[in-house]
Amino acid sequence: MFNKPIETWLAEYSESHQNKVNKFIHWICVPVIFWTLLALLWQLRLPQSSYLNLATVLIVYGLFFYAHLSLRLMLGMLIISALSIALILWHERAVTLPLWKTAITLFIVAWIGQFIGHKVEGKRPSFFKDLQFLLIGPAWLMSFIYRRLGIRLNK
Question: Which H or E element spans position 71?
Fold first, then answer.
């Protein structure tokens, strides 16, 4: 699981994400998929708790994964996870459509977008090679943000 440095993961992920259209689609669809997955898992609460649910379990697992790759990456993903939870809580309070309906709809549309992007790219999605690439997609986007801000992933 932690046998590769973050630079190797990002380089391998980048191999199937060279086309500008595919990259653009990923900038939209990866965050949407991240949020919708958390939103769907948010509703699967563990007994006797309002905030302990499968989404928080996935977030803790993901942060553990990211921390082993880069503490700075983990901090960025912690912020993204917190913003995602805030959006989930807002949706539960402010939107009349049930959270699961919103999440399922956006999840399906975003995955269709992802596959369109890979059709344009002419390469299969990375997660067909290794499911861990599902966690690398958000990290790949975060690495672009960090680069633009002059933040290195490693010390």
Answer: helix 71-94
